[in-house]
Amino acid sequence: MDRPTSYDNLIRPIEDKMLATVWRVLRSTQDAEDTLQDVLTTVWQKWSKIERHPNPRAFILKICANAAIDQLRKQIRLKNRESVSELSHLLPSPHIPPQDEAIGQETLKEIMGAVAQLSENQATAFVMRFVQVEPYENIAMALECEEATARKHVARGKKKLAEILSHLNPNFTEI
């Protein structure tokens, strides 16, 4: 298959979803665009594997989720080393009071930090399920596992996130 033609048929239709996936994890336009460039490089390098995959779209979205989570982990490591106060930049909303906006940013930082603490499969499954709103079938194909295993990764990720984030709400039992 010719790569440029395949790119037009496979990548171009989901480019916006790829960028949105990365942005939802990183919450920074610049970081999302940079990470998407890394994703496209990875896609190019793994093109023959992507073409053979039973669901190339799901595999590409898995690459996006993994790249975004990896970038988030890098940012957390950098923050710990350099004591950087901010992990991501959110655009202020004119409908949210400034104090609520600040609370929302801090909560989002904690949530994304918690996602970064999950295992790779749990983090990927969680992001694909709750950020990308992918069905379990696509998650299973992307993770190259059975659908029941994909469900287990999501459930274990949710359970661990609930434990990590329990301080946000003591009555917090379900994400």
UniProtKB/TrEMBL annotation:
The keyword Glycosyltransferase does not apply. Keywords: DNA-binding, Sigma factor, Transcription, Transcription regulation. It comes from the Bacteria. InterPro entries: RNA_pol_sigma-70-like (IPR039425), RNA_pol_sigma-70_dom (IPR014284), RNA_pol_sigma70_r2 (IPR007627), RNA_pol_sigma70_r4_t2 (IPR013249), RNA_pol_sigma_r2 (IPR013325), RNA_pol_sigma_r3/r4-like (IPR013324), WH-like_DNA-bd_sf (IPR036388). Residues 15-75 form the RNA polymerase sigma-70 region domain. Pfam families: Sigma70_r2, Sigma70_r4_2. GO terms for molecular function: DNA binding; sigma factor activity. One of its GO terms (biological process) is DNA-templated transcription initiation. Residues 109-161 form the RNA polymerase sigma factor 70 region 4 type domain. SUPFAM superfamilies: Sigma2 domain of RNA polymerase sigma factors, Sigma3 and sigma4 domains of RNA polymerase sigma factors. Belongs to the sigma-70 factor family. ECF subfamily. This is RNA polymerase sigma factor SigX. It comes from Gimesia aquarii. The lineage of its organism: Bacteria, Pseudomonadati, Planctomycetota, Planctomycetia, Planctomycetales.
